[in-house]
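User: I'm curious whether this sequence folds into something compact or stays loose and floppy. Could you predict its structure so I can see for myself?
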Amino acid sequence: MDNQEDFFDRSRIEQMPQRFRANFINSLSGFKSASLLGTSNGTTANLAVISSVVHVGANPPLLGVVMRPHTVRRDSLENIKNTGSYTLNHIGVAFTDKAHQTSARYEKDESEFYATGLTPWYSESFSAPYVKESSVKIGLTVTEHFTLCNDTEFVVGEIKEVFLSSSNKDALKDDGYIDIASLGSACISGLDTYHSTQHIAKYSYAKPDSDLAKMS
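Assistant: Here's the prediction. I'll summarize afterward.
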């Protein structure tokens, strides 16, 4: 090992102060998607910032979300369990402050939409609220729900509808790729740090006996 590297064994990690350790571990996974989770209990539209969305499959189209343990009141998780539907909305670089404010502990009957100045929007066919300001909006229904080894909960949802912003007509490419950087989507590192993104390269399909081609 390079002697210039700082080494952290399990013992050293466990000795870290709680908040320091939480920030340290949350930073290790690198840049993560920045999304707002939209749910409703029938009377109140709730919104929560999350950075744990993962791709599960394309056919059927599935996304997974890791939710923190239900040891305290979790309005979004409770709404998902009760209604079976929710939305995922990309956080734009223009409203990262409002998105992060949704992590505050508002009362159960207080909507994070109105508390932060974001706008709830509903499609004609979906009951959960979208974020009007978001450039990528995804409506999902629960397919499976698991409790993991540390009591976090993993929700797998099937994509029912998608709305892409018309601000950049070229964002959807001929091969189906969505250029989310051009749509202004932000990403997250750690627990509270937001970043804009910059395109580096798009490469051809990798094969053992072929050189990569830079597509863009």
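Summary: The chain has one domain: 31-195. The first strand starts at residue 32 and ends at 33.
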